[in-house]
Here is the input.
Amino acid sequence: MARKKNRMSQEVNAGSMADIAFLLLIFFLVTTTIASDKGILNVLPPKLDPNNPPPEIDKNERNIFTILVNANDQLLVEGEYAEPEGLDEEIKLFVLNFGQPDEEASALYNSLPASLRALSQRDPESSDHPGEAVVSIKTNRGTSYERFLEVFDLAKKAYFDIYAARVNLTTDEYRALSGKDAAEQALIDKGKENLPMAISIAEPDKIGS
Amino acid sequence: MAKFSKKTKTSENIPTSALPDIIFMLLFFFMVTTVLREQEILVEQKIPQATQLQKLQKKTLISYIYIGKPKNTALYGSEPRIQANDALLNTADIVQWVNRERDALPEADRPMITISMKVDRDVKMGPISDVQTELRDADARRVLYASVGKVDRN
Here is the structure.
């Protein structure tokens, strides 16, 4: 009796194991959605305090690069009708104009790589120096979100191009820096140093929407 | 001839005993990466394209808000609506929702809460700016405009 039992195969038949695993695999393949958490980061201005109105800002008109988008998704850039193509290059020229650099800005100018210095036109009608320059985007309540994001994207691109050129990376490589370790964080900081990303998003107006 | 007969004697089977292991490995990969969607999206979501995408490091800090035209127009109308978690919200309820989301985070992370706005591309700026005003009131000022990578046309 005992001998007979020993002769019988004691292994579990594992031949169909692959099939079972395949079935589960296909289930998870179908149900899986790889979450995409990519996007364009923006930091909103702080809440308005009614008792403490924001200080009057007397910035020179030349230091503000105004982009207006109307309810028909048309662009008015610095008072002229424009197309979004090439807007990023215009913003770069504006930010790096160095019309009237102060001492600090001159030092910044000297620290820039030659490719960025070449963009400086020293136009007295354009921004004084990058520390003063502001890109202002104003939309209408009827502007489509897609067009707003396109313009915002281009403004971000202009700044990221400048940052990346300062640390000798491509724009994509610079954006991929996560600041996980000290070396990456140092690169990020070096790109941004003394060159704040000043993109202002004005509250949309209600007329004509 | 002798040579040929020798050749036919060799086993031509591919050993498949490691196949289940390989499949299990794949299975575990997908099981780990899978996020079962626990909520139904009630609004249309055609996410716009952009080029300057950034990735956030800590996913736990992100709360999602969906804005778009309701899928069920008979029930919710055709104006863009806001969805957070699994219900449609009114603009005025956003502050409360943000505070609830923030309370769910560990204390140290609370100021860093990020709202990922998944907005349909056909929505106008009006409702979005209303939402942003509410977010400013709630002091959740980090906003991520969710978008997908643009494919170069040239």
Summary: The mean pLDDT of chain B is 82. Residues 2 and 50 of chain B are 69 Å apart (CA to CA).
